[in-house]
Write a structure and sequence with these properties.
The chain is mainly beta. It has a single domain, classed as Rieske [2Fe-2S] iron-sulphur domain (Rieske Iron-sulfur Protein, 3-layer Sandwich), CATH 2.102.10.10. It contains two helices and twelve strands, in the order E-E-E-H-E-E-E-H-E-E-E-E-E-E.
Length: 204
Amino acid sequence: MNDEGVDLKRRRFLTASTSVVGAVGAGAATLMMINYMTISEKDKAQGAPIEVDISKLPPGKLLVVEWRNKPVWIMKRTPDVIKAIEAVDDDKLRDPNSEVAEQQPDYAKNKYRSKTKDMMVVIGLCTHLGCSPREEQAGGDLGADWPGGYLCACHGSTFDYAGRVYKHVPAPTNLVVPNHRFTDNNAKVIIGGVVKKEKKGAAS
Ligand code: FES
């Protein structure tokens, strides 16, 4: 994945308009809106880094922020979500270990596709034709074998909770993980503009 070469010290960080729109796990359907200052159209067009406060994000809730006109999904994974990722048989996945280099930074080349397995940061657009997938929980319409994850209803592509694409669906690759880094003791995440190379595949 390309680094944009942005000098973070010279760039003012921006706070995105965000919403918590989904949930993982039974009974967690609360819709929450969090009010933040909206970044300018010019900054959006230039793809400036955005800083997102995740200090009050409840585990299992999906926070959606806009970056480069794309929805970025942020979630603090629960133990059940981590288990659902670990339950997926690698043979069912097209790129279980995130080996397609363009789809994520080096530090997300692992099965969780993240720096730490309890955090998800991915672009919520299907890699087929760009529709927005939705969560499909275990025990729903996708059958008894489905451990939970995301379905793109446009043409039926499926992804696990790490954004790994299943085989035999139209989407060719895993969901994209944008460059990002955590600050303030993990109370904030900065999306975009990360230039530092970090250790490969170190999800813990
Ligand atoms: S756009 Fe997602 S399956 Fe076609």
